[in-house]
Amino acid sequence: MMKLPESFLWGASTSAFQIEGAYNVDGKGLATTDVREVPEGMADTKVACDHYHHWKEDVDLMAELGLKVYRMGFSWSRIMPDETLVPNEKGLAFYDQLIDYLLEKGIEPFVTLYHFECPQALVDAFGGWKSRKMIDAYVKYAEVCFRHFKGRVTKWVTVNEQLIATAAPGLAMEYLKDPHERAKWIWQISYHVSLAEHRAFDLLRTIDPDAAIGPVCAIQVVYPASSDPEDIRAAQEAEEMMEFALLDMSVYGEYSPSARTWLKERGLLPETETADEAVLHGSRPDFIGVNYYFSTCAKYEQKPFDFNTSFFWASDDCRIIPNENLKKTEWMNMGIDPQGLYNGMRKVWERYRLPMIVTENGMAVSETPDEDGRIHDTYRIEYLRDHINAVMRLREEGYPVFGYCPWSFIDVLSSHQGFSKRYGLVFIDRTETDPKDCRRIKKDSFRWYHDVIEKDGRDL
Ligand code: BG6
Prior knowledge:
Bound molecules: 6-O-phosphono-beta-D-glucopyranose
Number of strands: 15
Number of helices: 15
CATH superfamily: Glycosidases
Helix content: 25-40%
Strand order of the largest sheet: 1-2-3-4-5-7-12-13
CATH architecture: Alpha-Beta Barrel
Number of domains: 1
CATH topology: TIM Barrel
Strand content: 15-25%
Radius of gyration: 21 Å
Mean pLDDT: 95
Distance between the termini: 31 Å
Structural class: alpha/beta
């Protein structure tokens, strides 16, 4: 098992396409997220937070905040723009300067290779993850990164939230209108991603045995909507299919009997090849990254096979609904549930016995500065405090949680809902349609989190 860091890693998170901008400069190829249709009046990836031109100022802010680790993403299409898979020197140079400056400031870079996007050229050339060619392309990309940043990046994430990543727009499946056919592709794509992930685990061990690698999972904390045994089973099945089936593939290289049965009964089992077995069973991750925002409830309900269970999961016997007992806000419409983080991480530990780090956790709010030009985000402080307390409780009880990274360090472009939905500790002065100068303004939560780090999470 990975050796835990000596001190707890207080960090913060972002991803490449949600902050960088500069979507077509210095040899960067177009990413799937650059070409997808964005509703009129909503921000896109072209400028985002203009981190590409503000990276130094951003690292200075991280240093001021006291971050020990920065969970960031690489843009695949900046490093490897097209299907020739030839690395783009200018793309690597951008990350060189960023990583070197982070290290100079004593901040550890913790890099995600794949966060919801890939080069559009790979989708155009062979259908992206639909094809096994994508597995080789991903492994080539991982190899370039592992070799180039060896010794400087010592913690890697293979894939952010496989659940969402495999159903993300731009993977050439929007034209499939039949939910069953689309679900079949989603599971096939997910299977290809798992193969790619295991090959990357294996490769890193050869290239840099001192580095650690793991997946990031969107943990699903699903309570039964009632004590009706059918609801209890629906909740169990929802967690199994939306979380554990994917994590089981990452860790054990196989589906559980219940997940396999569920897929088989619905004709959704992916197509496999004989050589896959050895790849899937040949390696394991060092840790599990946990993303958590809210919990949900499951209600048993027989219905036509559709995607209304939740936006990424197609089912015919379960509906995901909000929990009546939780406080809801504009963007957190499933409710806020810090206890859910504790419950969910305990389950992850019980099933996998691997060290864990919270790679994302945060509260979205539409915000504008007050008359004094500041953002007094007491609601976010409350949200983060309650969730950090859940993490501290896990630590005290002896669960191996080695870090916490709120989402997000700066306000970022939402994964699919523009720039009005803000999660950051730092405000970015821009609107949906006007990037202005993307000025950085520290929110009250920035100052508060600085003190949390200084006190190592005690007495919040
Ligand atoms: C996580 C993603 O699912 O949730 C992030 O890893 C994303 O990329 C975050 O931004 C919040 O979701 P959204 O849709 O509000 O941006």
